[in-house]
Write a structure and sequence with these properties.
Length: about 900
């Protein structure tokens, strides 16, 4: 091969190499380009997936084409792996856990499907656990790898308000959800525990028609579209009331009170307000905001539908988006909610009907007297007050509290409205809770009839009420008895105040703490038909008003409480004229159609049905109204059975209550003051009758050996006058040993004969010397007495004079005889009588005489001799005839049967009423 050829080959080879090298370089570049292009495509693809979301991307048809591209597959796979990785904690676990939580927080009708509860009335009373959540539907997390459902629920009652916003297309669906939610609420609790209020801006009726049967039982109120302000005002007032009367001890909410006391005292009020997507006018908006802010603590729950509002309180929302997707604040923005389907209309109506029925039935269930009584008797302590149920409302007890905040009670209602029955129910509830050491009762009934008499032992029923210390019946003619009771209470109040002062405290509660061994029961004084006490414009009324004012104002701190009952409070001028008294009667009880017991604008008593009462612890203002059905407490087997049971429980040493029966004439022999008399008295005391006081004491005249100690019975009523003389003689007789006293019994008219002789027989039987004389012997007797006194006056007799009681029956009948003068001495028999009256007492000779008129007494005792009658009992004699016998004071006294006016110049400032004793048939 030549050189040329060789060189050529070399060149060709070099070119070959060059080409090869260029080819290699170009191939590598193309490969790099293609690799970069794939990487870029993958990155772009990944970016797109990330931006769109892998789950959305997977659903995109354009995207689906890329799924087959093997170059992009790994990108998808990686995104899907990552996405699955993110949900590993959720898938399978999350929804299950939510199921568990909601089942726990929303038990029974709060969360279960309607088939298990719709149509049955709930049993829970709201005091125990309240569901934390209430189901509205289900939800799914939009982008979860598995579309696993979980329940969607919202907190309600006490926790949060709820707001829905819908689209026009979904409004009906939202209404269905609201209906379902409300049914869950009312089916969970006892009927009455949740009350519904519905307001729809657009329509008078229409919203939630399935619930209308609830209105029958007052569980649902549909409000007028134009009157939202009324509903809001009502709620605002409710909030105020709860704050001023229930949340008074620092507890922040009704829920807190229920947790502490174990009792939900107020129903929940749920207001469902349907709007039209425009805001309310400013004023309503503000009211609604205030209610939203303060309502939850007071049991008010708002459910708003399409009512735009911003609130500064917990508010859950459920909104339907423009895309039709429903989202809730509980489930968050990534979950779409499927609301539970609307409940079948027919079943809803039927269920609401059944719930209403259940409530009406429970309300009408006759709560019995026994329902008012505690299972265990006498366990209550009255240190800080008295509290007892007196009736029921919606099956729940309604209590009354007598204590520092509501010390006195005013009960009103027309005749037949049930006042007496109410008082029995109240007393039954109290006496079964508090023992006689905790509570004492003073019971006064001005009504004709003897309704309180059953508290004392009777002939048929020996039992008596252990708490009763005093029972007054048939006292309408004896207003003085009301006065006596008030006086007793005022005295007791002072005694307690002194004891408190001694222990350096001011109130009964503190006194009891300082003096634990002392007996300081609360005292409740009940005066039925108390208007009789103020019936006249006289001294009794003015004294009663003064005492009542004192007790009403100061009794509260000393544990002395008044319960005044009347058929017509408005007629009691004396009472109304004294607002200071009236204000103290904070607790008002109005029976049906009662007038003026409650505040003037409070008409509740006009609407309350028979056998119900309005109980108001707020001086009768409207927001304090509580309605109670009062059980029958007067039929056989109610109060009487309780009394028998408590009577058997009483301690041995408990004394019987004192009975004052205005219709009964007290027997001398049964009076304590008589029984206590015995021989050896330093100053003999004559008992003339029973005075009207709380201890049933006798009118006493101490027969000192001093001038003026003679006694006159004045008036024409033989029965009463002879009683006065007889009781005086018999009581004096007991104070002398047989034979130690002399009695003269002079009967000078026919109608005195029988009683005078009977008395003489009794005195003789007691062993005393008795000289019985008639008209024939009177002059000689008086002359003899005068002679004896003369001897003593002249000092010729040194013997101690014997007590001598001279009983002159109708002495004025002997005046014609006595007026004749003794020709020798020029003295008349009347002069002799005056002499005996004047000088007798100093020597133990006391005249106890009956003059048949005041005029006759006065005419025979002219010239200062009237002063020798130091004490008297006037019977059918008018007040003005008596002034000269009572140091000239004006005496207002209108005679009344079986009553006398007693005055003892040496003891009394004013006369007092007495009841002449029954002394017939011996003591
Ligand atoms: N809650 C009730 N349940 C059953 N019966 C009742 C109830 N309240 C009242 N009664 C009955 O109604 C009647 C009248 O009641 P009550 O005597 O208590 O009325 P009142 O207002 O005291 O009437 P009055 O002033 O005329 O005496 C009585 O027969 C009583 O038994």
């Amino acid at each position: 091969m030549n050189k040329r050829t060789e060189r050529r080959k070399k060149i060709e080879h070099a070119f070959e190499e060059f080409r090869e090298t260029v080819g290699l370089a170009l191939g590598a570049a193309a490969r790099d380009h293609s690799r970069a292009a794939v990487a870029h495509a993958r990155s772009m693809f990944e970016l797109w997936i990330r931006q769109t979301g892998v789950t959305t991307a997977v659903d995109d048809p354009a995207f689906r084409r890329c799924l087959d591209n093997p170059l992009l597959k790994p990108v998808i796979q990686q995104a899907l792996d990552e996405y699955q990785g993110i949900f590993t904690g959720w898938t399978g676990q999350g929804p299950l856990e939510l199921h568990r939580l909601v089942t726990e927080a929303a038990p029974g009708p709060a969360g279960e499907p309607w088939q298990t509860w719709l149509g049955h009335a709930g049993q829970r009373d709201g005091s125990g656990d309240v569901p934390g959540l209430w189901r509205v539907g289900s939800a799914v997390i939009d982008r979860a790898p598995e579309r696993e459902e979980f329940p969607a629920a919202v907190p309600l009652l006490d926790e949060s308000h709820l707001s829905f916003s819908s689209t026009p297309e979904t409004r009906a669906q939202i209404e269905g959800t609201v209906e379902g939610l409300l049914l869950r609420l009312i089916s969970y609790f006892q009927p009455g525990t949740v009350q519904l209020h519905v307001w729809d801006v657009a329509q008078l009726t229409g919203a939630l028609p399935g619930l209308y049967p609830l209105a029958r039982a007052g569980l649902l109120t549909v409000h007028d579209p134009a009157r939202l302000h009324e509903l809001l005002d009502e709620f605002a007032e409710h909030i105020r009331r709860i704050h001023t009367s229930v949340l008074v001890d620092g507890r922040p909410s009704l829920r807190a009170v229920a947790d502490a006391t174990g009792k939900r005292s107020e129903p929940w009020r749920v207001a469902v307000l349907f709007g039209n997507r425009t805001a309310l006018e400013e004023q309503l908006q503000q009211k609604l905001q205030r209610i939203a802010r303060n309502g939850l603590a007071c049991g008010i729950q708002l459910i708003l539908v399409d009512l735009p509002i911003t609130v500064n309180s917990p508010l859950e929302t459920i909104r339907v988006g423009k895309d039709g997707v429903i989202r809730g604040s509980m489930t968050g923005p990534h979950a779409s909610v499927t609301l539970d389907p609307q409940l079948p209309r027919e079943q809803v109506t039927r269920a609401c009907g059944a719930i209403s029925e259940a409530l009406l039935e429970r309300r009408s269930r006759v709560c019995t007297f026994d329902d008012l009584l505690p299972e265990v008797r006498w366990t209550g302590t009255s240190a800080s007050g008295l509290e007892a149920p007196i009736g029921y409302h919606d099956g729940e007890p309604v209590s009354m509290i007598i204590g520092d905040a509501s010390p006195h009670v005013l009960v009103g209602g027309p005749s037949g409205s049930g006042k007496t029955n109410f008082l029995y129910a109240m007393l039954g509830a109290l006496v079964s809770r508090y023992s006689p050491d905790e509570l004492e009762l003073y019971l006064l009934d001005f009504k004709e009839g003897v309704s309180f008499a059953q508290f004392t032992p009777g002939r048929k029923d020996p039992s008596w009420l252990p708490h009763a210390r005093l029972v007054g019946v048939n006292v309408n003619a004896d207003r003085e008895f009301g006065l006596a009771l008030l006086k007793f209470l005022a005295d007791e109040m002072r005694r307690r105040a002194d004891a408190a002062k001694h222990h350096e405290v001011t109130k009964l509660e503190e006194l009891r703490a300082e003096d634990p061994s002392g007996r300081w029961p609360r005292i409740v004084a009940v005066i039925d038909e108390f208007q009789y006490l103020f019936a006249e414009r006289d001294a009794v009324t003015s004294r009663a008003v003064g005492l009542l004012e004192d007790v009403a104002r100061r009794g509260r701190s000393q544990g002395i409480h008044l319960v005044l009952s009347s058929q017509d409070v408005s007629g009691i001028e004396a009472f109304w004229g004294k607002p200071a008294i009236f204000e103290q009667f904070v607790l008002r009880v109005a029976l049906p159609k009662a007038r003026r017991v409650l505040a003037e604008t409070n008409m509740a008593a006009m609407e309350v049905p028979r056998r119900h009462a309005v109980i108001n612890h707020d001086s009768g203002v409207r927001h304090g109204n509580e309605i109670a059905r009062v059980p029958d407490a007067t039929s056989k087997g109610t109060f009487d059975a309780l009394q028998l049971e408590l009577w058997q429980r009483r301690t041995e040493n408990l004394p019987e209550p004192l009975l004052f029966d205005g219709e009964k004439v007290p027997r001398l022999s049964t009076v304590d003051d008589f029984a206590e008399l015995g021989p050896g008295a330093v100053v003999p005391t004559a008992l003339l009758g029973q005075v009207i006081d709380v201890s049933g004491s006798a009118a006493k005249v101490r027969l000192l050996r001093s001038p003026g100690r003679n006694i006159a019975a004045i008036g024409s009523v033989a029965r009463d006058a002879t009683s006065v003389l007889g009781a005086a003689a018999l009581s004096l007789s007991r104070q002398h040993d047989p034979g130690d006293a002399d009695f003269t019994v002079a009967y000078l008219t026919e109608d005195a004969t029988e009683s005078a002789k009977a008395l003489a027989d009794e005195l003789t039987a007691a062993g005393h010397g008795v000289d019985v004389i008639d008209l024939d012997g009177i002059r000689a007797k008086l002359d003899g007495l005068a002679e004896g006194l003369n001897t003593r006056l002249s000092g010729t007799c040194a013997e101690t004079p014997r007590p001598h009681y001279v009983l002159l029956y109708a002495i004025d009948a002997a005046y014609p005889l006595l007026e004749q003068k003794n020709p020798a001495t020029r003295q008349s028999g009347l002069d002799t009588m005056k002499f005996v009256l004047k000088h007798g007492p100093e020597f133990g000779t006391h005249v106890i005489g009956w003059w048949r008129s005041a005029q006759r007494l006065k005419s025979s005792l002219i010239g200062g001799a009237l002063d020798d009658i130091g004490s008297w009992v006037a019977l059918d004699v008018h007040g003005q005839e008596l002034s000269s016998l009572a140091a000239g004071q004006i005496i207002s006294w209108a005679p009344r049967p079986r009553r006398g006016l007693f005055f003892d110049r040496f003891e009394h400032a004013k006369p007092e009423v007495v009841i002449p004793f029954d002394i017939t048939g011996g003591q």
